[in-house]
Amino acid sequence: xxxxxxxxxxxxxxxxxxxxxxxxxxxxxxxxxxxxxxxxxxxxxxxxxxxxxxxxxxxxxxxxxxxxxxxxxxxxxxxxxxxxxxxxxx
Length: 90
Prior knowledge:
The chain is α+β, with helices and mostly antiparallel strands. The chain is built from two helices and two strands; from the N terminus they run ββαα. It has a two-stranded antiparallel ribbon with strand order 1-2. A hairpin with a 5-residue loop joins strand 1 (2-7) and strand 2. The protein is elongated and about 55 Å long.
């Protein structure tokens, strides 16, 4: 059995038991995965901005890689968000 996150009338998020349904598991797991992807993208962005502000050897060496990693992180977050919206529409 897995847990499914749902919103109660009072606005409190509750965990309900589901009978081993795959979609039920994904509806509980995907929001956490989306939050992790967004947090990782934010962290990459902050590292890039701090490196840009200092304009030292770290920035000159890793600027392009940080920008690439940020774009990939944003793409992954958007794909997860699209998957959540697709599953919510069903």
